[in-house]
Amino acid sequence: MNMSSMPVKFTLLICIPVLGFWTDMTTKxxxxxxxxxxxxxxxxxxxxxxxxxxxRGMVFGLFSQHHFILKQVILAGLTFAAxxxxxxxxxxxxxRPFVVLLPFFIILSGALPNFSDxxxxxxxxxxxxxxxxxxxxxxxxxxxxxxxxxxxxxxxGSMLLFNKNxxxxxxxx
Length: 173
What we know:
By secondary structure, the protein is α+β, with helices and mostly antiparallel strands.
């Protein structure tokens, strides 16, 4: 990649976490203002509902039942360590093609706002609840940042699975 395209590549890549952070924070602010105090909104009956909750645990509410202040410090520390690792890894592979860097920036766009919530509030705001009529009731609530994290991980996984001979050396060499 020539040097003139590097600023364009990183400008585009940096826009992803900036827009991701803004989108997540905007939707969480809406959820706090419109769904607090036990209110909910059905968007698609039997499929999608918005319900405010405060996730004091990890992904999918793991460890949310344990109430001790050290847990919040540990979770914030683990999140901070993961973000630092992600930044260092991105720096290490920064000269790789846009498509190789893309999933890491998508993951970052979800990790940063959830970390911000954890530091500012001691919990992460979740509000999206998925159903599939009477067939499935996804027991976990999530937010837009979680969607970015999962989308980035799925993109990375599919790139490694279906294009491993080309992508894996780009990432791990």
